[in-house]
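Reposting from the mailing list since nobody answered there.

I have sequence plus structure tokens for a pair of proteins and want to know whether others read the tokens the same way I do. The first protein:
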Amino acid sequence: MSQIEKEGFLSTESEDGKIHLIGKHQELFDYARELNQLCMEILVNLKIDWEDEHKLIIQTLFLRLVEGFQGIFLMLERGMMPESKILTRSMLEVTFTLVALQKKPDLMSSYLDQHHDSHRRSLKSALKFENPNLRKAVKEHGIEKLFIEKKKELKDKELKVLSPKEWADAAELEDFYNVYYVIYSSSIHSNLSALDDHVDKKEDEINLSLGPSDIDLYDVIKCGVFLLINGANSTELVNGNDISNKLDGFVEKIREFDQRYIESAC
């Protein structure tokens, strides 16, 4: 039995697979690292104004976006394709919100409404716990009182909570929703189509696939790159900076990768 069969991605054999994948896609990973370094430079040089709620939320969303990209990068190095797609779907939602808030600051009210609605729902859900220990914890922490207070707070307020599609439309990123978000939502919800990631089809047999893979690696990293570019652009615009010239170079480089990964495969 190989180490992969015994420990999966926790095995040292998986680390050997990482070396192979990076070597096979070296230039692509180097490119992603370069973009990540630019985004880290933006984060390090952020001027935080705790009184400017709009700017602060966008800056924090960008931080989350960069860390999400780094998580995807680490997964792709190891060939963890299904997991990278799940995290990419999360990055999509962050980007839709970040870019929409930059382009339409008045949507801050909807963003805050989303927080209030989520808080109310979580309190309500806690009151439905069946496990005795959980019910005891709910009572000890006064969750019912908090829920009643939240209901009173929101009693006469009409919350306007936007769907991911509406955030994408507001961000003018409709195509990212219609292509990537729809596809990667299948992965996060474990739909039947997403299970193809775990199937190894050969001419003479079909098996469940276990271990590293680079199938769809380019699609995932390309999506992550464009999300990071959009997020960086919007964040710097809010910060009063224009880095479009720097970002244009990364966009142009993707076109070169398209010729290698997409056109050559057709």
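The second protein, same order (residues first, tokens after):
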Amino acid sequence: MDKEKLILEIMADAEKDGEPVTREEAEEMAEMEIKANASRRYEKAEKPRKTATREIKKDPEKVEIIKKICDFLLTSGEESATIVNEQREIQFREFSITLTKHRKRKTK
């Protein structure tokens, strides 16, 4: 940004706030702002940060429910029933069934 534009902008903002500043004060404020913006430095770490891999725990109850639903669909004549995710989803024809386990509400 041009220093002159910044000075005029500072003076206009100060006047809007009801506290007008002199040109010298605006120049000083503009110089401080320019120096503050110029002194930013971004350093790159030598070693990149490792991303944490979270282990997904298997819920045996959910696995059992999904298997039972899939078995039921297969025995009732639905040949295209497949388990997409053994803890979550079954697909057949153009449908899918998603199993959701709801958490208990936290009491305050």
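Reply #1 (J.P.):
I read it the same way you do. The mean pLDDT is 87.
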